[in-house]
From TrEMBL:
Name of the protein described by the UniProt record: Aspartate 1-decarboxylase
Known EC number: 4.1.1.11
InterPro entries hit by this protein: Asp_de-COase-like_dom_sf, Asp_decarbox
GO biological process: alanine biosynthetic process; pantothenate biosynthetic process
């Protein structure tokens, strides 16, 4: 049996941009992606702490050490710059493997989204 579990989580990052005219996705500082073990194109669930919106899109890397968190395309309508988000990635794995699995949890600096 396969179960779906949290693989990666970036907890409480601040939205730095919203670009309606980009073709979908969320741009994430590549340092944050590496720390959370998220790869380019991977599906990301986004939870907006400010307004309760939840959505899914895919990750694209942003410049390192930039702290960039930009929602692109239609998703940009569900956030405002300054909103606080939780980014979650899930993985399917064998039930026994899942019991032992430890997700990558990242808690960046909330002021500028950098790793502390």
């Amino acid at each position: 049996m396969l179960v779906q579990v949290v693989k990666s989580k970036i907890h409480r990052v601040k939205v730095t941009g919203a670009d309606l005219n980009y073709i979908g996705s969320i741009t994430i500082d590549e340092d944050l992606m590496d720390a959370a073990n998220i790869i380019e194109g991977e599906r990301v669930q986004i939870v907006n702490n400010n307004n309760g919106n939840r959505l899914e899109t895919y990750a694209i890397p942003g410049p390192r050490k930039s702290g960039e968190i930009t929602l692109n395309g239609a998703a940009s309508r569900l956030v405002a710059v300054g909103d606080i988000l939780i980014l979650i990635v899930y993985a399917f794995m064998d039930f026994e493997e899942a019991k032992k699995f430890k997700p990558s949890l990242v808690f960046p600096n909330e002021k500028d989204n950098t790793l502390t």
